[in-house]
């Protein structure tokens, strides 16, 4: 079916496209924008002038270009850092990290807080989270009117609307209405996003040529999660955010997972699973609540020394990961993988078993899939959170045709 856009709809779309290209490029001329988004110079000039008048963009001469010849120096557009600000919150086991970023994405305030989510009640969690956001916002020195968006990255599954934390390894609490709490308290739109989805979003933003349409970011840490991009979009469930790659069944009746089930991929490839097998603990041993990056690095070093227990534990992790990927590839065809997190310190000893599983499965064509490694997930989670928040502010502003933004 053909969709016909009205002139106002087209103008809103073009406003957003111009805002997005300026954000991605940092500084860009009107002529470069016109070429990048396939719009006429006149259209770009009209829209960009509106956005400058609204305070969304700023314009300044390109001093380097003015020294080249006698012509009028080119003018570069960039986003106005002071237009709006966003709150970025990362919730993870034992900690809350809060950052305030300006409209250009620069951090203007940041604070880290410890929180015992395993032993906290719903009301105490709400009060603590609100107080810590307020404390960080006050440290920024910004007026309350500048808070335009709250973006929350979480370990765990959210509802598809990004309003509730449904379940998480951080806490026994379920159905936590985090976004509602914060919208009610601060008057700014809020959304929760699974941390693996944010990692995938960050990779797509950081390197759109490599991570464009079809790829997955797989977190190898305490949990095993997946952020999946297919045809240029994040793939989620019909009701929740998680693809739950780590809780796909690998071996029925197998090792105990922290979710309570047995035989999950994570029960073999999560950091606690690797440590458990390396130590020779029974498969039904309760998963450790915390494993450090140093412990995984030490097991990797033992494997380099040909320690049989280390090699066995890491090969078992590789087989579990390969089994899960083979199942997904049978459904949707092979795609690039980025493994992220402290588990990649030992990935060289997981990879042979992973590729052997793929080679001997119905996903044989995936045996040579490209794999990238990122040892630290936190910069990617924060970057994904930032892009999510600022892109939403862009989208809201794009709807305001010709409206003068309130300071």
CATH topology title of the largest domain: Nucleotidyltransferase, domain 5
| SSE pattern, N- to C-terminal | HEHHEHEEEEHEEEHEHEEEHHHHEHEH
Shape call: globular
Give the amount of beta strand, in percent. Answer: 15-25%
- Per CATH, the architecture of the largest domain is 2-Layer Sandwich
Portion of residues within helices:
40-55%
How are the strands ordered across the major sheet?
6-5-4-7-10
How far apart lie the N and C ends? Answer: 42 Å
Q: Count the E strands.
A: 15
The rounded Rg comes to: 24 Å
* CATH class placement of the largest domain: Alpha Beta
The low-pLDDT segments are 63-68
Concise description?
The protein is of the alpha/beta class and 407 residues long.
Structure explained in plain terms:
With 407 residues, the chain is an alpha/beta fold. It folds into three domains: 7-79, Winged helix-like DNA-binding domain superfamily/Winged helix DNA-binding domain (Arc Repressor Mutant, subunit A, Orthogonal Bundle); 85-188 and 381-398, Nucleotidyltransferase, domain 5 (2-Layer Sandwich), CATH 3.30.420; 207-376, Nucleotidyltransferase, domain 5, CATH 3.30.420. It is built from 13 helices and 15 strands. Strand 5 (95-102) and strand 6 (107-114) form a beta hairpin. It starts with 6 loop residues before the first helix and ends in a 9-residue tail after the last helix. The model is unreliable at 63-68 (pLDDT under 50).
